[in-house]
Amino acid sequence: MDFDFPNPVKIVQRTARDFARQAVAPLVKGMEENGRFPKPLIKQMAEVGLLGLVTPRKYGGSELGFLARTVAIQEISKVSAAVGLSLQVHHMQSAALVDWGSKEQKEKYLPRLCRGEFLGTCAITEPTGGSDLLGMASAAKPAQGGYSLTGSKCFITNAHLGGAPLVVVKTGEGSRGLSAFIIDRGTPGFSVGREERKLGLWGANTGELFFKNCRIPEANLVGDEGEGMKVALKTIGEAGRPGMAAIALGIVEASLEEAVKFSKGRTLYGKPISNLQAIQWGLADILMDFETAKLLCYRASWLKDKGRDCATHMTMAKVYATEAAVRASRRALEIHGGCGTMMEYPVQRLFRDAMVCVSAGGTTEIGKIVMSRAVLS
Ligand SMILES: Cc1cc2nc3c(=O)[nH]c(=O)nc-3n(C[C@H](O)[C@H](O)[C@H](O)COP(=O)(O)OP(=O)(O)OC[C@H]3O[C@@H](n4cnc5c(N)ncnc54)[C@H](O)[C@@H]3O)c2cc1C
Fold this sequence. Notes:
Strand content: 5-15%
Helix content: 40-55%
Bound molecules: flavin-adenine dinucleotide
Distance between the termini: 28 Å
Shape: globular
Number of domains: 3
Mean pLDDT: 97
CATH architecture of the largest domain: Up-down Bundle
Low-confidence stretches: none
Strand order of the largest sheet: 1-4-5-8
Order of helices and strands: HHHHHHEEEEEEEEHEEHHHH
CATH superfamily of the largest domain: Butyryl-CoA Dehydrogenase, subunit A, domain 3
């Protein structure tokens, strides 16, 4: 058993770490103040290869795989989980097209995603269908040369930054009644709604998409008609959940660093509070959560890269890491005492961001249903 990363993954880790420090860190204050994603960052992420990590070389990516992606998202999210979310959803659309796209779709969209012409977007959730995918109401009906789509999507990451979102809607009834489409920006009947304000992950763009008699050419159907459920489940399960897990891992690591730094610097009773046993136990708890989440995240991504069954491991990593991020950031915040509640200390942001990660990408309850089904079968 080898716990060392292969060299290419080490290089990605170093690149992402440097990029996070140099390009992302200076933007965090602004994102916290105005809640907006800094658009120039998209091209910068493309230039250092972050956008094409899971895309084959022949379509402009580096094909370095899911372990490299996890490590990159972790490094970015240590500095800004909001940028981590934008990046992880970008990879979700790339992965969906790699898995399900036609040759023409891959040639048309993947290079543009790698170049950072726009960010990737996957639109599945809508007001009547979150955990309950089949509860969605948006529907595409056959129309001349393709389909006509009417409906809406909500809580969509990169809604305002995407150029050709992947959208899953109804084309029939039951689990074979969903289909996936690419909707090009500018298609008549397609519009983007409001930008949401969230508890955390400020700066990650979240919004609504609207479709009114929106004409989609047959060529934009992703996979076969009726395969939308499979597209959604594989994309969420094997790209979305590990992506959220990696963001949460970055938050846990940042929480540990903030807690250690503060506890060494804060003096009470004439000594740093890191001398107090209760504080030491808190640090030990965060450390254990970090190491456990790390093992789950890396192993799940490694299984995916080996082409092995990974969906349950991805779900375990997502549920464990996001819950660990809430525990760790809360503990770190408590170690800060009153300072932890002050906006100038990053630990409050870590706690708010962690809370948002729990539901994004599928809730803990749904994750436990997925895991228990695996163990029962
Ligand atoms: C920041 C953010 C970004 C997001 N980005 C995207 C995106 O890019 N694309 C996209 O499509 N979606 C996105 N989402 C939506 C996200 O996937 C959903 O919020 C999530 O799947 C939960 O759905 P819901 O919000 O409708 O909650 P609901 O499904 O309404 O759940 C409400 C509660 O009921 C519980 N529950 C539901 N079903 C069961 C059950 N069977 N047993 C027990 N408990 C249950 C849930 O766990 C939860 O506690 C994003 C969400 C957030 C917060």
